[in-house]
Task: structure prediction
Amino acid sequence: MSSLDQKTLSYKLASFLVNRPFLSMTIGVALFAILAAGLPRLGADFSYRMWFRESDPLLKAFDEFERQFGNDEQVVLAIHSPSGIFDKESAELLINLTDEMWQIPEVIRVDSLTNYNWVHAEDDEMFVDPLIPDDEELTPELLAARREVALNHEVIPGYLVSKDGKTALIFGVLQPAIGGSPDFEKVVFGTRKMLRKYTVDQELPEQFIDDMYLPYYQSVGDHTIYLSGTAAVSQTFKDVTQHDLQTMVPILLGAILIFLLFSFRRVSGLILPFVVIFPSLLMALGFAGWTGFEFNNLTSTVPHILIAIGIADSVHILVTYFQFRRLGYDVKEGVQKTLVKNLQPTFLTSLSTMIGFFSFATAELVPIIGMGVLAGVGTMFAWLITVLILCPLLSLLPIKVKKASDTHTVSDAHPLALRYTHWLQRNRKAVIAGFSLLAIFATFVALRNEINSDVFKYFAPNIHTRVANFFTEDHVGGIAAVELSIDSGEPDGIKDPAFLKKVEELQVWVEQRHHVTKTVAITDIIKQTNRTLNNEDQAAYLIPDNKELVAQELFLYTMSLPQGMDLNNRMTLDNRRLRLSIMTTLHKTKESTKEFQTIIDKASELGLSATLTGKMPLYHRMNGYVVNTFIRSILLAVGLVAILMIFVFRSWKIGLLSMIPNTVPLIFGGMFMTMLGKPLDIGTVLVASTCLGIAVDDTVHFLSNYLRWRRAGVSRDVAVAHVFTHTGPALAVTTLILVAGFGTFAFASFVPNINFGILTAIVLTTALVTDATLLPALIIGPQSQEQETGEPSSQVIEATV
Result:
């Protein structure tokens, strides 16, 4: 090794790691112990609150709504009977399920056909009775009469029963958890346990009954039961995360073992990469415990990402190490030369990958921040473990490597690499022009994509919650409510007929919207009560003109209500604000946010002061945050990586030139998103910055080794051929491993993770192709008059291989 090389920081650090292996490993183990100690502190959150900062105005608005009206979260059961829901068997099932729903943890109110407060008159008296009583004989005559009442009622059809009378809903409303979240696991598991008693085969294994892939619960007779609601959505976020981890990690590890076996064909090549994988992963999760980042749907991707990145780091080291051993170097010399060659490039590639992940730190959605930070620090931990533990360990292990019979041939550029390089040199203009045209076309296609998402479609099509929701919407109507808190402006103001008539006008207008299946407010109750007090005269189904009469009717109604069924969830205690619930089938963010503004504008036009909130609007309004995250992260990542490239190569020209083959795959990725019908959402928004940070690794390795060969005195084409020969295999293997790692997300149940993984795998594959074609075409130049050498001198070999 030249005296110049011996003065470099890489050489000095390599000498320390090889000559003081136990001290190096002690430092690495100590760092691991400190960080891994945070693992017991690692928490998990899969509720709606996990997405937002506590200072977020959207979250504050919802907390205020909860203080005024209680929780809008609920667990919903849909009971379907093809023969009709108004027979004795169905009625008894509804009564039993309604009664037992009150016992579910966190449930403080249950609404169903059986306990719906039916306002009616008998012998000039007003009664408020359960629509399907549990204290009378359920005769065919009684049930037929109640069916007639229900299906001709102004509120019940499309809310508690389908218009054809074959599907009924039961709503279990959860207690408020202002500043926190209900225990969704208790709610959903409690409901599943209750349903177990009503399944046809009660001896089925519990894990089958609780299976999130179970399409429905088969109950007595021809009844099927579906479980949905916002509580089920929150719990399903957790269920799919756990399922994906249990499914994808083994698949990923199996794919990695196959790649390692194919690449190294030796036991050490299979085992040593895991020296990096597991410690770096545990360190990242421990860091999350120490810093307060919680486990959720997005941070659950970190283990897969770090497994792939940890493998990539170790493979670069091992491939180079075995190359030097085949050249005849002994164990310590092989490790030292491996480190001298790879310390700087691997550090820079880890740094660029960190930049890609850390660009998400400016996001407004907390899980995206957590994913970015944890993946970023985990990337650096993987590099530290590789350097502090793996490399010193290599210097201690007596790994036998057969020396090549002709070391000169091993060190030379492969004939195929030379032929390919010469082809690129002859056709460089055509290659550059071809990529330019493709990039222009890809940009045009990518810009046609839209920013959109659908919370229920975040789950795979066979997930029970998704099946249940769309079944309920198809048969009854929407169960995801948009909530309006309407302020009358003064205490007792909701009793003012003028105010109520404006609310009624808004309600009528909203119900005419194509996506709205039902609205619910106290205006319905006031009109029903007024009609009943006027001998069921349909003409009296209106808001009285007298404020005192409105107050009396509300008082009469509330005095007739059973315990737990009051109107506190429909109006505030000071009677200043009322709640208008809008049941909608809108799911797509783009359409929903536009509709939200339309509703607010209409309320303002009517002179009403309305605030729109609710769980579903919270999810939909994340759309703006997704846009900001995409723009900020990609601009920050591109800017910082460009600066890094300029600094690394100490050249504006090379630094900016290196960004071309790294941005082109991102444009192609945008094209693939559009072609595959993948809109920009919380999963796909992560692709660009993540891929930029990872894809630039290949460019750094390519250009670093290219410049080493150029400094050794060989021509451009031969330098490129040597890079293909000596660095190309490691780049190909690491890219394949990364593609396999992200490709395992195709087996996920959380759709944003599926999209993220598949698109990342596509972009990384495209990036490798671009680095193998466009990048050398840009740097190789025209046919050179330089003296080509296919057989570098021993000094050249010493400096480069």
